[in-house]
Write a structure and sequence with these properties.
With about 110 residues, the protein is mostly beta strands. Helix content is about 10%, strand content about 30%. A hairpin with a 5-residue loop joins strand 10 (about 100) and strand 11 (about 110).
Length: about 110
């Protein structure tokens, strides 16, 4: 898992300079990210195409796929699967557990 880290705000832009920058679930689509609206010329943490992105700030738990190389902020974590693990399988497993994931200090499974 790759925890996001936000670059300094002065590096954000709408001029498509640098990498697309995502901070949380506001740009999540049905299954994959919506087109970017913000870019950053200072890359901190990156997600690659096919990585599963999880929202780790309120709301905790929603997931999406990265569709291109992006910079991820503190509100996201990227999960990169090894070749022997089917990423679609993992995506749907996480999706099926989404209601059980809760917490205000990060992603944790709620006690049963």
């Amino acid at each position: 898992m790759i925890a996001g880290q936000s670059p300094e705000g002065r590096f954000y832009n709408e001029l498509r300079q640098g990498l697309p920058f995502y901070q949380g679930k506001k740009d999540f689509g049905e299954r994959a990210l919506k087109p970017p609206t913000t870019w950053t010329s200072q890359t901190t943490k990156e997600a690659l195409p096919g990585d599963i992105l999880m929202s780790v700030r309120a709301p905790v738990g929603p997931i999406n796929f990265a569709t291109e190389r992006i910079c991820i902020g503190r509100g996201l974590a990227a999960i990169r699967c090894r070749e022997e693990l089917d990423r679609d399988f993992l995506f749907y497993q996480l999706l099926s557990k989404q209601d059980e994931i809760a917490g205000t200090e990060g992603a944790v499974f709620a006690p049963r």
